[in-house]
Write a structure and sequence with these properties.
heterodimer; A: about 400 residues; alpha/beta; FAD/NAD(P)-binding domain; five-stranded parallel β-sheet; 8 helices; about 20% helix; globular; B: about 475 residues; alpha+beta; D-Amino Acid Oxidase, Chain A, domain 2; eight-stranded mixed β-sheet; five-stranded antiparallel β-sheet; 12 helices; about 25% helix; FAD-dep_OxRdtase (chain B); BFD-like_2Fe2S-bd_dom (chain B); Glycerol-3-phosphate dehydrogenase (chain B)
Chain lengths: ~400, ~475
């Protein structure tokens, strides 16, 4: 560790970042600095109310902020140098990061950088929703932060947009905190969460409508109403808020603003089977790779990438060449999007993770140098996890690609 | 704290300025500097609630203003004063320059006459460039570019901090700012008796800077309408800061008879702006966005700068410009009633505001008794929000970073809330600090801001607990 501040700097103290730090320490890597911009560890789990965390990693169940405290304890116990209130504002290309703290700005360097900045929901602007821009239009994560951190509520009668799992969590958060959603609407023709979870709004007496188009949001200072089109009929619903749920996107601004860039499909960094970027000093894991998986998934992924970094530091051999994995519509993303010429069996990510842009029926196939090595036929839904094992032969491939033969 | 920091009722003011857009803020400052006892009244909860909150933030040269027009003279005077005062007020000036881009031979032919007009308007730094030459100054421009006119001195500024600085200076000189005070009626009997929704105000003279409501305010003051506001909506898309490296300069289209067209330009805050549209409408209050138009703006942006394709959208907004029957500024003086109307100030208002303010003071001198001796006060610097200058997060002891996307510190938010002209609504806090203005649009910091602004904003971010179960 000559001339650097750390062996590994980990950016982001959610499940994946802490897990990576613990694994690196377990494998004897000396100096691990974990930078977290908030005052506590835990990331999104700090305010998530919908699912318990920790069963698989710690053998017991935690809710909300208590999971973050457990992460903090583990990190301390295992000698991870945790620095909260440290906001990374820039990535160099040479293993350096620019960090803003209450002291001002400083530069830090490490032999490897791991980015675990998680994911967030798309706000109203990025969704190009029409209408006025009053206050009261926010996302589930923001609502949960209102409730969990400050005991506040932003509205009493919101319209809920979306039908992912998190949307149902949003309904629950409202109901348990004195707000009564006026309706749950989904712009797609079908619910994204699986039945019977998707029946939940109806069971508690909240109308659920699919195939809805949001035509207008009205309100001068606070939301007053939303105009919807449903079954070719338009209707104006009085409400005092719009809760946008789901449509997660990686919080990948550090990559987007640096020459490292992001992958057009996942909107996170393009990584190989070890979570490693084309620039071999940089790794990433957890939901910054793709939105969105559970906290437990992020923890395991972070741990696996941490193991890969430890191996890399130990081996000291230069990073191998890589190929890009190609794919086409309706495949939205493939992670890893790169495959390096190195052993697949000891890799951090043993499976390709795919998502679809839309509902489609047909055959998905994986071809390596022109040969189909895997295929699956059926009905594919958006926002559902699809896993395809990375075959050993991928490590010597020149062309790796996913194809889709759609059936009417 | 109170949204109405002072009670103006018992006072007689030399001048009452009606409407706290950029022009109103500049006018009240100019009168305060001249020694007037001045009051600015505003119907909204904060300054910049109308046309001034949505513009393209360009400090114009006036190269394309109508030759020998008052508008041109005022743009030039306003710009000159901005250049003189911006440093001492901590206001940014981003020397981007502009390229008027011709995308075909027809447009290229018109560049020469635009340049001639510009030279006749007294503007230096105009250079005709081939497409290739222009792209050397901005490589990300589409290779379809036929030719361009470089306008060296078009700059980018912070459109919200500038008016705040003007008003803060006026307040430091003793001027008063009365908000949530809609002008309801005015009666003149040698002094003006103004009836507002926040109570009566008396003044020796009035200046109408009511923007989108300029004609209404004239009517409420008892004047026969000289012009009619015909709101023109402009929608904008703001792209992620990652886009900024592709857009170092202001990209202007060759204007048509109908519109100035879509501009692609950097902002002082490090984003890229695409807009505005020009959509006529009757409604003066509502500026809604629509998805199809926003998509069209994104498409146009990536035609002009192909690297913008797929760039994440940070924000979208729409504003109304107070257009009238005529393109010209609608300035009227009623000497016998000591009233001045500065109406129909559209997209050039940010550039001309300080010039308009000087003009209003000159007009005032034609009918009013001399004011008290001019006041002097040290300039009031405002917090810098531009990425081209040092921000608070780069200095020690700021407490913590509250808004991570825009790197807004607790010290900045607290300072805004405690300032002499504190924000009256959430938009005002955003414009003063940039909190919640970034790519996550408040996903991470909104709840914290709700906590920090409790009891401070006209429309609170959080609803009352006791009402919640109603």
């Amino acid at each position: 560790m000559s001339g650097t501040d750390a062996d590994v700097i980990i950016i982001g103290g959610g499940p994946s970042g802490v897990a990576a730090g613990l694994e690196l320490r377990r494998r004897g890597v000396e100096k691990i600095v974990l930078l977290e911009r908030e005052a506590q560890l835990g990331g999104a789990t700090r305010h998530c109310s919908h699912s318990p965390f920790g069963m698989r990693e710690f053998g017991r169940v935690y809710f909300g902020a208590s999971y973050g405290r457990r992460l903090e304890e583990e990190a301390q116990k295992h000698g991870v140098d945790v620095r909260t209130g440290h906001s990374v504002v820039g990535l160099g290309m040479d293993g350096s990061v620019e960090v803003a703290t209450h002291r001002g700005v400083e530069a830090m360097t490490a032999r490897r950088i791991m980015v675990t900045t998680g994911a967030r929901e798309q706000p109203r602007a990025a969704r190009l929703l029409p209408g006025d821009r009053p206050i009261g239009i926010l996302t589930t994560g923001t609502l949960q932060a209102y409730v969990a951190f400050h005991g506040l509520m932003p509205f009493r009668r919101p319209l809920i947009v979306g039908s992912e799992l998190v949307s149902l969590s949003a309904v629950l958060t409202c109901l348990t905190h004195g707000a009564r959603p006026v309706a749950v609407v989904e712009t797609r023709p079908h619910a994204l969460a699986r039945a019977p979870l998707s029946w939940f709004p109806g069971l508690v007496g909240i109308p659920f409508r699919k195939g809805v188009e949001i035509l207008d949001i009205l309100g001068s200072s606070r939301v007053e109403a939303v105009t919807l089109r449903c079954d070719a009929r338009s209707e104006t619903l009085a409400c005092d808020g719009v809760l946008l749920t789901g449509v997660f996107t990686p919080e990948s601004a550090l990559f987007l603003q640096s020459p490292l860039g992001v992958d057009a499909g996942s909107a996170g960094p393009a990584v190989d089977q070890d979570g490693r970027l084309a620039n071999p000093l940089y790794f990433a894991g957890g939901n910054v790779l793709r939105a969105v998986e559970t906290g437990g998934w992020a923890f395991r992924e972070g741990r696996a990438v941490g193991a890969a970094i430890a191996q890399d530091l130990e081996s000291g051999s230069p990073a191998a060449d890589h190929v890009s994995v190609s794919y086409e519509d309706p495949v939205k993303l493939v992670v890893p999007a790169l495959v390096r010429r190195r052993d697949i069996r000891s890799a951090a990510l043993r499976q390709f993770q795919l998502r679809f842009l839309r509902k489609a029926r047909g055959t998905l196939s994986l071809t390596i140098d022109g040969r189909t090595v895997w295929h699956g036929r059926g009905r594919w839904l958006p926002e559902r996890r699809i896993l395809v094992p990375i075959p050993d032969s991928a490590q010597d491939a020149r062309h790796i690609g996913f194809r889709f033969a759609e059936e009417p | 704290m109170s949204l109405t920091p002072v009670s103006p009722r018992e006072d007689l003011f030399d001048v009452a300025v009606i409407g706290a857009g950029v022009v109103g803020c500049a006018v009240v400052r100019r009168f305060a500097l001249a020694g007037a006892k001045a009051i600015l009244i505003e119907k909204g909860a904060d300054i910049l609630c109308g046309a001034s909150k949505a513009n393209s933030a360009i400090l114009h040269t006036g190269f394309d203003a109508p030759p020998s027009s008052l508008e041109l003279a005022l743009i030039r005077a306003g710009r000159q004063e901005y250049l003189e005062i911006h440093e001492s007020r901590n206001l940014p000036l981003v020397r981007t320059g502009a390229l008027v881009c011709a995308w075909n031979d027809d447009e290229a032919e018109r560049l020469e006459s635009i340049a001639e007009t510009g030279r006749a308007n007294g503007i230096d730094g105009l250079t005709l460039l081939s497409g290739a030459e222009a792209r050397r100054t901005m490589p990300a421009l589409s290779d379809r570019l036929a030719a361009a006119l470089e306008v060296r001195d078009e700059h980018v500024i912070d459109p919200w901090s500038a008016p705040l600085a003007y008003l803060s200076e006026a307040v430091a000189l003793g001027a008063r700012f009365l908000r949530q005070a809609e002008l309801l009626a005015g009666r003149f009997d040698d002094i003006w008796h103004l009836e507002t929704s926040a109570g009566p105000v008396s003044a020796r003279a009035v200046v109408n800077t009511a923007g989108l409501h300029g004609d209404t305010v004239d009517e409420r003051l008892g004047f026969a309408p000289e012009f009619r506001i015909k709101p023109r909506k402009g929608q904008f898309v703001v792209l992620d800061k990652a886009a900024a490296r592709h857009v170092p300069r202001i990209v202007l289209p060759v204007p048509t008879e109908i519109t100035k067209g879509i501009v692609v330009c950097p902002t002082a805050f490090g984003n890229v702006l695409i807009g505005p549209t020009a959509e006529e409408q009757e409604d003066r209050n509502r500026a809604a966005v629509d998805a199809r138009t926003l998509q069209a703006l994104l498409a146009r942006g990536s035609e002009i700068v192909p690297a913008l394709a797929g760039m994440p959208v940070t924000a979208v907004y729409a504003g109304l410009r107070p257009a009238t029957e005529s393109k010209a500024y609608r300035i009227f003086v009623r000497r016998e009633k000591r009233a001045i109307t500065l109406g129909g100030i559209r997209s050039t208002g940010l550039s001309s505001a300080l010039g308009l303010a000087r003009h209003a003071l000159e007009l005032h001198a034609t009918f009013a008794a001399p004011l008290a001796p001019p006041q002097t006060a040290p300039p009031v610097p405002v917090p810098n929000l531009a990425e081209t200058r040092e921000r608070d997060w780069q200095r020690p002891d700021h407490g913590e970073i509250v808004c991570h996307c825009e790197l807004v510190t607790r010290r900045e938010i607290e300072a805004a809330l405690e300032s002499p002209v504190p924000p009256g609504d959430f938009g005002g806090l955003r414009r003063r600090t940039r909190a919640g203005m970034g790519r996550c649009q408040g996903f991470y910091c909104h709840a914290r801001l709700a906590e920090m602004t409790k009891g401070r904003l006209a429309t609170p971010l959080a609803v009352d607990a006791e009402d919640r179960n109603r």
